[in-house]
Specification:
5-stranded antiparallel β-sheet
Length: about 575
């Protein structure tokens, strides 16, 4: 079968719309904040062999690159010819799935007229998997919770009781966890119906030809982009906080003909005292994402786009850890992989890279009190984004995965904690020709005499977000508990009157600060993003007398005053 470009585009977009519908259904039917409010899940459509064809557009790109790898691993235990309509495979094994226990992977075969035509997969971070409540301190994976090896969660449309009982018996909030998992199974049923309708509408018996066309064209497009780059090698390193000790990521990026090879030789070894190790699957999925973003930004994510990208990493390194290393906080490592790859590509593609972002400060509240009952609430606040060659870094938002922030109202309704404030931190974005995005400060106050357990996982407190091509670092993060700086992040008994400040870092700058226009600096000062002191020290722009004007006028009037004084025509 041959596909003309218009037909291919229409059918391809319809497949993306199907997984988008599944994504929306997960949000609407979920039980937890981590799934329904934080959007810490991803949905993907795979062909009959388990290769990724389409992902929901709001899904984390790492999850959907990893899901096909997980699916193919599970199919070794449950071969396709043994599967039945209504089966659902499940695992949360860190070396098969997305590399920490809270991420459950559910995969459903799609049958059409008795024939296996595709797979639907969703990976979602559930609220609890047992184990201790800390993210960062563990000696092995067994301390972190319970593990389900590849099994059938549903068999021919009926839940498998022993698996459901095992999950329920080994978590603190079984209704919430099982509610999310059963909801996801329901969304797969919607997706299966939509795929069957799709095949009927086009008179297709299966999706094999369409899948081959999507994967082949995508692969060739990426290979063509790689061929436009000169052959050669580049190196880049990133040193990050880690937890009890820092670690270093090192990459050699080699381009030859139409392939890219990423070699992580020289990266720090895995750690047995901190749960920050990453297994290969998630490290690889995170490393190929920047390559796709730079070289094929307008093509929907699919497995064709990863075929030309190879990766090797020493076994036992912090990006290819061995069983049973502790992995609960592996985001502390993989968050630094995109700036590592962008840094290695900065000289080759300066207009396509982005400086390091201000990280993620996840925290969760778990406990029980008279008003809220048993509760487990997660929040995923981020820092500012890094700057690019033609734009300042964006204000706090998710990167490099599309999570969202649990609304304050939903947070306060479900746990005994008040969010006292959220505000931007002036001067926190790294100075540069284009300034890094500002970080944010979040205040929390415990409201229950019975207390609750607060777990925080900060980053970039010692090694803040790096700038690129002469841009400066963003400011480091900080956590202040009752007026004192926190250094260890074990579960904290958060009791009435306790207050904590989370200072989430800013992003790195791009380009030398002395090349930033005076008009841009003055506008930053007028908006309160940059202080007069930083304007002078980092940018060499004097703004004496402006502060009094700002206090006396509205923001809009102040900006107009700045523009008039500088005789600029900056919009």
């Amino acid at each position: 079968m041959t596909f003309d470009p218009i037909t291919l585009e229409i059918q391809w977009q319809r497949l993306v719309n199907i997984v988008d519908e599944i994504d929306n259904a997960v949000i609407r039917t979920s039980f937890s904040t981590i799934v329904g409010e934080s959007h810490d899940f991803g949905c993907a459509l795979m062909d009959a062999e388990g290769s990724g064809l389409a992902q929901a557009q709001w899904s984390p790109p790492q999850f959907c690159t990893m899901l096909p790898r997980t699916t193919k691993s599970m199919l070794k235990r449950f071969p396709p010819d043994t599967l039945k309509d209504g089966d659902v495979l499940a695992t949360n094994d860190p070396w098969i799935g997305s590399t920490h226990l809270p991420d459950y992977n559910l995969v459903s075969p799609v049958f059409h007229k008795g024939r296996l035509v595709a797979f639907l997969g969703t990976v979602a971070h559930v609220s609890d998997v047992g184990g201790h409540l800390g993210d960062l301190e563990a000696q092995d994976m067994f301390m972190e919770g319970t593990r389900v090896m590849p099994n059938k969660f549903y068999s021919q449309g009926q839940v498998v009781p022993v698996i459901e009982e095992f999950i329920s018996a080994n978590c603190r909030v079984p209704d919430m966890v099982l509610g999310d998992l059963h909801a996801i199974v329901g969304t797969h049923r919607i997706g299966i119906q939509r795929i069957q309708e799709f095949l009927d509408d086009y008179g297709m018996a299966d999706m094999d030809d369409l899948a081959s066309e999507i994967l082949s064209r995508s692969e060739q497009a990426l290979r063509a982009s790689i061929r436009d780059l000169p052959d050669g090698k580049s190196h880049y390193s990133v040193t990050a906080d880690g937890y009890l000790e820092p670690f270093t990521l090192n990459v050699e990026l080699a381009i030859k003909d139409d392939e890219i090879h990423l070699d992580f030789e020289g990266t720090s070894p895995q750690q047995w005292h901190s749960a920050i190790n990453a297994a290969f699957n998630i490290s690889y999925a995170t490393a190929v994402y920047p390559i796709k973003a730079m070289l094929a930004p307008y093509i929907f994510n699919n497995d064709g786009l990863i075929r030309p990208v190879k990766m090797t990493a020493p076994e036992g390194s912090i990006v290819n850890c061995t069983f049973p290393a502790p992995v609960a906080a592996r985001a502390k490592v993989i968050k630094h992989i995109p700036p590592l790859i962008f840094g290695a590509m900065a000289e080759l593609m300066p207009q396509s890279v982005i400086a390091a972002a201000g990280g993620i400060f996840p925290f969760h509240i778990v406990g029980h009190d008279d008003r809220h009952g048993r509760h487990a609430v997660h929040v995923l606040p981020h820092g500012g984004l890094g700057a690019t060659h033609n734009a300042d870094g964006l204000l706090p938002r998710a990167y490099p995965h599309n999570s969202t922030v649990t609304p304050t109202e939903m947070f306060e309704i479900q746990c005994p904690v008040l969010m006292t404030h959220k505000r931007l931190i002036p001067d926190s974005g790294g100075p540069g020709t284009h300034r890094g995005g500002l970080g944010q400060e979040i205040g929390l106050r415990a409201m229950s005499e019975q207390g609750t357990t607060l777990t925080i996982r900060p980053d970039l407190m010692k090694y803040p977000a790096e700038g690129l091509r002469g841009g400066h670092r963003g400011t480091p993060g900080d956590v202040i508990m009752n007026g004192e700086k926190m250094e260890r992040f074990v579960p904290y008994q958060f009791k009435s009157g306790d207050e904590v400040l989370l200072r989430v870092p800013g992003g790195g700058g791009y380009g030398p600060p002395n090349e930033r226009t005076r008009e841009d600096v003055l506008e930053d000062v007028a908006l309160g993003l940059v202080s007069p002191a930083q304007a002078s020290e980092a940018y060499g722009v004097q703004v004496e007398g402006l502060q009094e004007d700002l206090e006396a006028q509205s923001m809009k009037q102040a900006i107009a005053q700045v523009q008039a004084n500088s005789h600029g025509d900056h919009p």
